[in-house]
Structure formats: structure tokens, C-alpha cells
TrEMBL record, chain A:
<dbReference type="InterPro" id="IPR036282">
    <property type="entry name" value="Glutathione-S-Trfase_C_sf"/>
</dbReference>
<dbReference type="Pfam" id="PF13410">
    <property type="entry name" value="GST_C_2"/>
</dbReference>
<dbReference type="InterPro" id="IPR010987">
    <property type="entry name" value="Glutathione-S-Trfase_C-like"/>
</dbReference>
<dbReference type="InterPro" id="IPR040079">
    <property type="entry name" value="Glutathione_S-Trfase"/>
</dbReference>
<feature type="domain" description="GST N-terminal">
    <location>
        <begin position="2"/>
        <end position="83"/>
    </location>
</feature>
<dbReference type="InterPro" id="IPR051369">
    <property type="entry name" value="GST_Theta"/>
</dbReference>
<keyword id="KW-0808">Transferase</keyword>
<dbReference type="Pfam" id="PF02798">
    <property type="entry name" value="GST_N"/>
</dbReference>
<feature type="domain" description="GST C-terminal">
    <location>
        <begin position="93"/>
        <end position="240"/>
    </location>
</feature>
UniProtKB/TrEMBL annotation, chain B:
<keyword id="KW-0963">Cytoplasm</keyword>
<feature type="domain" description="GST N-terminal">
    <location>
        <begin position="1"/>
        <end position="88"/>
    </location>
</feature>
<dbReference type="InterPro" id="IPR036249">
    <property type="entry name" value="Thioredoxin-like_sf"/>
</dbReference>
<dbReference type="GO" id="GO:0006749">
    <property type="term" value="P:glutathione metabolic process"/>
</dbReference>
<dbReference type="InterPro" id="IPR004045">
    <property type="entry name" value="Glutathione_S-Trfase_N"/>
</dbReference>
<dbReference type="Pfam" id="PF00043">
    <property type="entry name" value="GST_C"/>
</dbReference>
<dbReference type="GO" id="GO:0004364">
    <property type="term" value="F:glutathione transferase activity"/>
</dbReference>
<dbReference type="GO" id="GO:0005737">
    <property type="term" value="C:cytoplasm"/>
</dbReference>
<dbReference type="InterPro" id="IPR010987">
    <property type="entry name" value="Glutathione-S-Trfase_C-like"/>
</dbReference>
Length: 247, 230
């Protein structure tokens, strides 16, 4: 059987969430890195896979799919052992699945524009060799930084209250797809310079203690270290840029 | 008993309302005004509603029998479809279901832009968009219409030849802008989208679920008349 191909980048949150889900689903994939600096996401071949110019994209035989949440559910259903499926997105429990969906959908308009917006503004545009072909160029210019900061803080507050009522975001007893997708947005904040992170020196452990404790649980989840390693490799470069006063 | 919180002027609330109608479900619509913090009529930013729905958005669905509260229209629609076994709207086949999910997720940053660009500036003056952002969003509508036109040149509906939840989710923000409804966007250059909008309008319960269109159109006409006077 040929392995499913995943196009994406280890610097991209939705890609890492897909890679993490693939790992937990015990499916071997063929990873094809996309470099936006080189315009890999704008080639005619890529546009045939996703005319929307975004990654991750999965190609499984003739079947092509984009949108990370859709891909995560697909890989899980097709490849994961029954116990893993039951844990991450339980086929036997419609209400639990729907609560997981609620948080996945919520991420699109709340947590992601906050966390990802901020990281792109503070770090990525300096870190990546060339962002001119990335759609973030427009956002950086037209979306007010204050809105991103407010969205992040509001989102963290909503999550902190939610996690206070249970250990995981969708009220499940163990990590679900929602925790994986949301935590992947949160863990990217590790790249923010310490004294300004996240917005203006707010201290996670004090200001959002439940999110902090939850983050520790997620960091201990199988596969996290493997998936994040490509991303955290950028840390020394971030520090170097920072000491040169560029961040 | 199912309770739907929201107003039918809200695109995502209307999507859920339509699916509840299609399910022939027994439900009650409870008015909640988006963005308001008032107690009466209840606003989505009032503390009573926030206690139930922390992000303060409509729609939300409550199942009073099980105590389940869901928000986010896509999550609610797939819940209803699975609960009422509406396998046409939300196919059980792995590939087809994944494609429905793809479009529903895509919706958040694409079809939804029609609302930010064209609807919100009229109905939500409290949300402040800069002129440049509005212009960028209007340009994005063109891009989204092109993407849809391309997809719909290959199949009559977004996922193959069947009407699914993907069409409902994408229609509410895009279809309402058509000339025959709120006339906020001209799809003449996007023939496949234009034809798809008309096709979607033939689905059951469409009329019952979209009676608000003429009411909204009147508001738009009034706002535009006042603008012309200035
Ligand atoms: N909603 C999409 C978001 C995908 C997305 O934003 N991908 C980014 C990388 S993190 C991308 O492709 N950026 C390239 C560009 O926008 O130019 C998903 O969850 O897959
Ligand atoms: N992604 C959400 C969007 C919900 C949404 O944006 N709702 C608007 C009304 S259309 C709202 O309640 N806004 C509250 C506010 O602006 O404070 C969904 O699909 O349900």
C-alpha cells in the first residue's frame, strides 16, 4: 500500500496538528515539505491539489483533501486503531464528538487569529527567509496588532474557564482532537521572546493557570516531542535575531 | 426539547434553523441578539448568555434533556444530522464526509468573508473595520467567488451531485448576497455560482427558513437611501 502524502511545513500549526494525529493514528505518511519562500504553494501542481493555496494537504491514492481538521478526522477514521479513535474522536459518543467539533470550529475565529497572528507579526516574518509570497503580508499590514492581542487574551480566558471545569477542553477524560489542534496553536507561543510573551509579559502559569496545567498534560502526550522538534529548532535563530535587536 | 438561540438575520443561526427544519425536529427558537449586552431582548454578550455560551456568539443549541450545549454552527449542524440520521445531508461514506468537512472548515476564512465585507458594515456598525480592511475583504470575495465557480464547474453541488451540509454552510453567507435576495454582490461573472445558488434555493424548507431576506433588504435599501442623501 502506498503511504498517504502530506504536504505542509513543520513551521505551520495546522500541519503539525495533522502530523501529530497521523503519528497517534499509527499511519506512516510520506511528508513533502512546502517552502513558501520558494513559492511551493503557488506552483500549478500544488494549485491542482488545493486551489486555495494553503497547506496542509493530504493525497491518499486519488483522494485529495485540504483543511487540517478535515484531514485529522479522515486519517483517524481510516487508519487509527479502534482505541485511538475512541479516545481522540469517539465513534460511540455523538455528544462528545460534537463538543470536540465545537472547540475545533471555535479555534478558527478566536484562538488562531490571535495566536498565529501574533507569532507571525513578532517572529515569523523575521525568521522566515522570504515571506513575500505568503498571504500573511496582507494581514500584517491591514489587521491591527491590538486586535490579535485582544483575541489571544480573550481566547485564553475562555479556555482557562473551560479547563477549570475538567481536565481537557471538550470535557473528555483524555486528550481529543480538539486538544491537539488548540494546543498546537498555543505551543507556538514558545517562540515568543520571554519578556514579552504572550502579549506583554503575561505569565501563563499565573494568569491562565488552568491552560498552563493543561499545556503540561499535552506536552506529555505521546508524539509531542517528535512533532515539535522541527519547530523548536528555530529557537536559537530566534534568540540570535533578538540579541541583534531585530525582534 | 431542543432550543436554538439566535436570530434568523444571522447566517450561521439560519443554517442551523434550516437543518432543524429539514430534520423535522421539535425545537424552539429563542431570540438572542448578536453583539448586544442587553437583558431584553437577550444579547449574546449578556452575562446570562455568556454563562451558557462563553464566546458570546449565536447560534447555540441546547438539548434540555441531556443538558448538552453546543455552539459553532458547523458543530451543531453535524450533531443534528447525525442525531436524526440525515445521511444524505451528511454522508457516512468516509471520503464524502471528509469533503463535507473540508468545505465547512474552509467556510470560516472564505465564504464567511462575504458577511464581513458586505453585510456587517450595514448591520453591525459597532464593529469597526478600516477602509483598507474592507477593501481587502471585498477583493477576497472575488477570490472566493472564483474558487467556488471553479469547484462548481465540476459538480452541481460542492460535494458531488448531492445537496449536503457543505452547501448550507457556504450558501448562507454567499447566497444571501445574490441579486434576488440582498443584492450585495453581482454573480454575473460567476455563472456556476449563480446556477448553484438557484439550485440550493430549490431544496426543501428553503422558503420557510429564509423569510427574513425581504426584511433585511428593506433595511439595506433604507441605509443606502440615507447614504445617497448625505
Ligand atoms: N484552515 C486551514 C488553514 C491553513 C493555513 O492557514 N495554512 C498556512 C500555513 S500555517 C498557509 O498555507 N499559508 C500560506 C499562505 O497563506 O500563503 C487549515 O486548518 O488547514
Ligand atoms: N463561527 C461561528 C460564527 C458565529 C458568529 O459570528 N455569530 C455572530 C452573528 S452572525 C455573533 O454572534 N456575533 C456576536 C458578536 O459580534 O458579539 C458559527 O459558525 O457559528
Amino acid at each position: 500500500m502506498t503511504k498517504p502524502i502530506v504536504w505542509g511545513s513543520v513551521m505551520s500549526q495546522p500541519t503539525r496538528a495533522v502530523l501529530w494525529t497521523a503519528l497517534l493514528s499509527r499511519v506512516e505518511i510520506d511528508f513533502r515539505p512546502i517552502d513558501t519562500g520558494k513559492g511551493d504553494h503557488l506552483t500549478p501542481e500544488f494549485l491542482k491539489l488545493n486551489p486555495n493555496k494553503k497547506f496542509p494537504v493530504v493525497q491518499d491514492g486519488n483522494f485529495v483533501l485540504h483543511e487540517s481538521h478535515a484531514i485529522m478526522k479522515y486519517l483517524l477514521e481510516k487508519y487509527a486503531p479502534a482505541d485511538v479513535r475512541e479516545q481522540l474522536y469517539p465513534p460511540s459518543d455523538l455528544e462528545a464528538r460534537s463538543r470536540i467539533d465545537t472547540w475545533l470550529d471555535w479555534k478558527h475565529n478566536f484562538l488562531r487569529p490571535g495566536a498565529c497572528g501574533l507569532i507571525r507579526r513578532r517572529v515569523m516574518r523575521h525568521l522566515l527567509p522570504d515571506v513575500s509570497k505568503h498571504s500573511m503580508v496582507w494581514d500584517l499590514k491591514e489587521i491591527p496588532a491590538e486586535r490579535e492581542e485582544r483575541m489571544l487574551l480573550d481566547s485564553l480566558k475562555v479556555m482557562d474557564d473551560q479547563i477549570a471545569a475538567g481536565s481537557y477542553i471538550a470535557g473528555t477524560n483524555s486528550a481529543s482532537l480538539a486538544d491537539i489542534a488548540l494546543f498546537t496553536e498555543i505551543s507556538q507561543l514558545d517562540l515568543l521572546p520571554q519578556d514579552v510573551s504572550p502579549p506583554h509579559g503575561c505569565d501563563f502559569s499565573k494568569d491562565f493557570p488552568n491552560v498552563h496545567a493543561w499545556s503540561q498534560r499535552l506536552r506529555a502526550l505521546e508524539g509531542y516531542e517528535t512533532i515539535i522538534s522541527g519547530f523548536t529548532r528555530a529557537q536559537p535563530k530566534v534568540e540570535a535575531l533578538r540579541s541583534q535587536g531585530k525582534l | 426539547m431542543l432550543k436554538l438561540y439566535g436570530v434568523l438575520g444571522s447566517q450561521p443561526a439560519r443554517a442551523v434553523y434550516w437543518v432543524l427544519k429539514l430534520a423535522n425536529a421539535d425545537f424552539e427558537l429563542i431570540e438572542v441578539m448578536p453583539g448586544s449586552d442587553k437583558e431584553k431582548p437577550l444579547g449574546s454578550r449578556n452575562k446570562e448568555y455568556l454563562a451558557k455560551v462563553p464566546p458570546g456568539i449565536v447560534p447555540a443549541l441546547e438539548d434540555t434533556e441531556t443538558g448538552l450545549v453546543l455552539w459553532e454552527s458547523n458543530a451543531i449542524m453535524t450533531y443534528i444530522a447525525d442525531k436524526f440520521k440525515m445521511n444524505d445531508l451528511y454522508p457516512e461514506d468516509l471520503g464524502a464526509r471528509a469533503k463535507v468537512q473540508q468545505w465547512m472548515n474552509w467556510h470560516h476564512h472564505n465564504s464567511r468573508v462575504f458577511t464581513f465585507a458586505l453585510f456587517a458594515p450595514i448591520f453591525r456598525p459597532d464593529i469597526k473595520f478600516s477602509e483598507k480592511e474592507l477593501k481587502g475583504n471585498r477583493k477576497k470575495c472575488e477570490m472566493v467567488a472564483n474558487l467556488l465557480d471553479d469547484a462548481l464547474s465540476r459538480s452541481p453541488y460542492l460535494v458531488g451531485d448531492k445537496f449536503t451540509l457543505a452547501d448550507i454552510a457556504v450558501f448562507e453567507d454567499v447566497g444571501e448576497c445574490a441579486q434576488q435576495h440582498l443584492a450585495l454582490f453581482d454573480f454575473a461573472k460567476h455563472k456556476n455560482v449563480e446556477a448553484w445558488i438557484k439550485r440550493v434555493e430549490q431544496a426543501p424548507e428553503f422558503k420557510e427558513s429564509h423569510a427574513v431576506f425581504p426584511v433585511l433588504k428593506k433595511v439595506i435599501d433604507k441605509v443606502q437611501k440615507n447614504k445617497a442623501k448625505l
